[in-house]
């Protein structure tokens, strides 16, 4: 009898250990024990003129690539250039003119082989939508009291505009009427509020306002082509992920978004 009792006890202990072992092996892993992987942040300094379209592309890209977070710093291309020269962290630079990229390249701050022209644009003359002034061409700027133009030291639209006005021979006679703005959005705001009689802006940005109208377009060949180049910074912390995003900007999906916002898509290496 004693032997049977001992055997029974041993069987019970073995059964208990088996159950405990099963519970141990099937115990769910605590959520806190799973290491969360933070998305890679790609810092992008981009021309203010592309803010709307790039914000739209950002949503699509981050949805398809949850491991990546795009962080934008928008501003006038000349201001962004100075920031980058002073050490502001960025993986990608998108300018509103080749000039800023050229200057950064001369200082070995970018990877030249990654230069890509994303889109092109046109220089246009805009007036308030309900303007009664007889302004139908750039030459008519000689008749206005004042007009808006980008600050040429930092705003590519201003640089293009002055080059164009010099080429058609009227800049010297109207330069004192120019009201310089910190960016193209401000030029359009001046025109919308009728603080100026007219303004020179990019076509795509003018199209975003229902309070202005385009009365003239600068002909091709009268100024340097308006292009928006992108380039990967030499100090990029995430060159592979940045290159992937740059390729996406040249993808048909992005092309459709650029065109939706009125941009003339290029998407090719320079």
Order of helices and strands: HEHEHEHEEEHHEHEHEEHHE
The second-level CATH architecture of the largest domain is: 3-Layer(aba) Sandwich
Query: What is the distance, rounded to the nearest whole angstrom, between the alpha carbons of the first and last residues?
Result: 95 Å
User: What is the CATH top level name of the largest domain?
Assistant: Alpha Beta
Assess the beta-strand content as a share of residues. Answer: 15-25%
Number of strands: 11
The biggest beta sheet, please? 6 strands, mixed
Strand order of the largest sheet: 2-1-3-10-4-11
Low-confidence stretches: none
Structural class: alpha/beta
Subunit arrangement of the protein: single chain
Q: Report the CATH superfamily of the largest domain.
A: Periplasmic binding protein-like II
Query: What number of domains?
Result: 2
Q: Summarize the amount of helix as a percent range.
A: 25-40%
Shape: elongated
Integer average pLDDT: 90
Brief descriptors of the model:
single chain; 270 residues; alpha/beta; D-Maltodextrin-Binding Protein, domain 2; six-stranded mixed β-sheet; 10 helices
Structural commentary:
The strands form two sheets. A six-stranded mixed sheet has the order 2-1-3-10-4-11. Helix 2 runs antiparallel to helix 10 and helix 3 runs parallel beside helix 4. The protein has 270 residues and is an alpha/beta fold. The protein folds into two domains: 40-120 and 227-269, D-Maltodextrin-Binding Protein, domain 2; 123-217, Periplasmic binding protein-like II (D-Maltodextrin-Binding Protein, domain 2, 3-Layer(aba) Sandwich), CATH 3.40.190. The protein has helices at residues 2-26, 51-64, 77-85, 98-106, 156-167, 171-174, 184-192, 203-206, 239-249, 252-260; strands at residues 40-47, 68-75, 92-94, 116-121, 123-128, 147-150, 178-181, 198-202, 212-217, 226-232, 264-269. The chain is built from ten helices and eleven strands. The mean pLDDT is 90. Strand 1 (40-47), helix 2 (51-64) and strand 2 (68-75) form a beta-alpha-beta unit.
């Amino acid at each position: 009898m004693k032997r049977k009792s001992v055997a029974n006890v041993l069987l019970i202990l073995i059964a208990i250990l088996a159950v405990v072992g099963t519970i141990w092996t099937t115990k769910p892993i605590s959520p806190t024990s799973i290491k969360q992987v933070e998305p890679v942040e790609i810092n992008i300094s981009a021309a203010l003129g592309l803010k709307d379209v790039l914000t739209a592309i950002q949503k699509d890209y981050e949805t398809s690539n949850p491991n990546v977070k795009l962080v934008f710093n928008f501003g006038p291309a000349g201001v962004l250039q100075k920031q980058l020269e002073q050490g502001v962290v960025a993986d990608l630079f998108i300018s509103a003119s080749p000039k800023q990229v050229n200057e950064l390249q001369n200082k070995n701050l970018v990877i030249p082989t990654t230069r890509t022209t994303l889109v092109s644009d046109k220089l246009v003359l805009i007036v308030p939508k309900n303007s009664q002034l007889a302004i139908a061409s750039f030459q008519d700027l000689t008749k206005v009291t004042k007009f808006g133009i980008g600050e040429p030291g930092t705003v590519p639209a201003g640089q293009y505009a002055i080059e164009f006005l010099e080429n058609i021979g009227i800049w010297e006679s109207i330069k004192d009427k120019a009201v310089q703005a910190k960016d193209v959005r401000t030029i359009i705001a001046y025109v919308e509020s009728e603080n100026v009689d007219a303004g020179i802006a990019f076509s795509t940005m003018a199209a975003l306002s229902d309070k202005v109208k385009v009365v003239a377009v600068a002909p091709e060949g009268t100024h340097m082509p308006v292009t928006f180049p992108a380039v990967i910074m030499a100090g990029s912390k995430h060159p592979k992920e940045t290159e992937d995003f740059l390729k996406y900007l040249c993808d048909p999906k992005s092309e459709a978004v650029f065109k939706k916002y009125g941009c003339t898509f290029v998407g090719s290496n320079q």
